[in-house]
Design brief:
single chain; about 425 residues; mainly alpha; 11 helices
Length: about 425
């Protein structure tokens, strides 16, 4: 009898625990629904822009091969749009939350315009130099003047479009009552890819329309102008533009170097996936969305640090865990959607797919596995840079997205080898 009474009490405790857990989950959904909705909608828009980018890239890719070594620069040029403008949107989002933008105070935006323009110019030179060196070491007769011209001019064109577009999105979403940390980075990163592909094709048309001495002179003058600008900044002491450049440029240079190799790594691995062309289709979109979700998470965490709502400690506090939970929930929705969309496009496009369930399982397992890694990396990057006295907004997103490029490709390829039918 005593045993039965004890068993009944234990069952009641378990029942109360289940009710409590259910209530806590429902409360989390109510509190986080706005963030989940904003992030998910921005990710879906980003996915559609990514598909459009893929279509344009496929249409123009034959032109890129007309310039020896140019294809090597493309992954890095695309990555730099997201790295530079993603980090900038993160800083603008933080400034908006802190009330530093508005009421006629345009200093923050002026600083960001100078930063993004200069960083875009600098990294375009770095990418061209890296690409030519690697191409020549592989026996490809690449030209510094030619690749330098294409890299620099395409960076100028894309930057001229991206600056007003990215800041209009950040400020506009904030004024509409949306959190810019949730919506700006995914859209800006993928829109930047689209604009860069179009800028590259426009630059190639310019190249063919001018004499060789013109683009050689332009490349030389461009590099000299950047050098003079750096010398002027070096004498400005504690200029905010100088501070961001000093913190961002080494990180972006490392990211550019790694990104140049990303395409080589993928090229060495994708042969095993060739029989299912739908998998080749989802590789860039998968990596893009993992990077976008990681950028949103990093932006939300750094804003919380600056606002004082999150403590930066060795172990994540409740606010950090809440942000992890939000991003994991959105990730599950995102990667299920990606599997469904990819399979549907594969059917319409008459390309091979391993089947709907396999596609969903692959994207969901791969995506959630990557996002667990992303949560850990993003938090401890923020922790490390904060403890060093540096602004995480300047460095975390470029480092995170570059790491994702390498890990994401490897993970999705090896998962496909394990779970897909022989």
């Amino acid at each position: 009898m005593q045993y039965m009474a004890g068993n009944a009490r234990a069952q009641r405790r378990e029942g109360r625990a289940r009710v409590s857990a259910t209530s806590a989950f429902l409360s989390f959904l109510r509190d986080s629904w706005k963030a989940v909705r904003e992030i998910y909608l921005s990710i879906i828009l980003s996915m559609l822009l990514g598909i459009a980018t893929g279509v344009f890239f496929a249409r123009f890719v034959s032109r890129f091969y007309a310039f020896p070594g140019l294809v090597i620069t493309i992954p890095a040029l695309l990555a730099m749009r997201g790295n530079i403008f993603g980090a900038s949107c993160s800083r603008v989002g933080t400034a908006l939350h802190m009330g530093l933008i508005g009421d006629g105070r345009g200093r923050v935006l002026s600083i960001e315009i100078a930063n993004t323009a200069l960083l875009s110019a600098l990294t375009s030179i770095v990418i061209a130099v890296f690409a030519v060196y690697i191409a020549q070491s592989m026996g490809i007769s690449a030209s510094y003047a030619t690749l330098g011209f294409i890299s620099m001019v395409s960076a100028l064109i894309s930057t001229a479009i991206m600056i007003p577009a990215s800041y209009a999105l950040s400020v506009g979403s904030y004024r509409m009552g949306w959190n810019p940390d949730n919506v700006s980075i995914p859209v800006v990163a993928t829109f930047g890819d689209l604009i860069m592909v179009l800028s590259l094709t426009a630059t190639m048309s310019i190249f063919f329309a001018i004499a060789s001495f013109v683009f050689e002179a332009f490349t030389a003058l461009y590099a000299i102008a950047i050098l003079i600008t750096l010398m002027v900044l070096g004498k400005k002491g504690k200029s905010p533009v100088r501070a961001i450049i000093v913190q961002s440029l080494p990180t972006l240079t490392l990211c550019a170097f790694i990104s140049v190799f990303a395409g080589i790594i993928m090229d060495a691995r994708v042969e095993s996936m060739a029989r299912y062309s739908a998998l080749l289709f989802i590789l860039p979109v998968f990596n893009e969305q993992v990077g976008n979700l990681g950028g949103v998470l990093s932006s939300r965490l750094t804003s919380a640090v600056h606002l004082g709502t999150m403590r930066v400690e060795k172990l994540p506090d409740n606010e950090a865990v809440r942000n992890f939970s939000v991003i994991m929930l959105v990730s599950a929705l995102t990667f299920i959607s990606l599997g469904i969309i990819s399979h549907a496009i594969s059917l319409v496009g008459l390309i091979n797919s391993p089947g709907l369930l396999h596609m969903i399982f692959l994207t969901l397992v791969g995506g959630l596995s990557m996002m667990i890694i992303v949560c850990i990396i993003s938090y401890y990057l923020i922790y490390s840079y904060y403890k060093l006295g540096l602004d995480p907004d300047n460095v975390v997103i470029p480092l995170l997205t570059t790491t994702i490029d390498l890990l994401g490709i490897s993970l999705i390829v090896y998962l496909s080898l394990i779970i897909l039918p022989l």
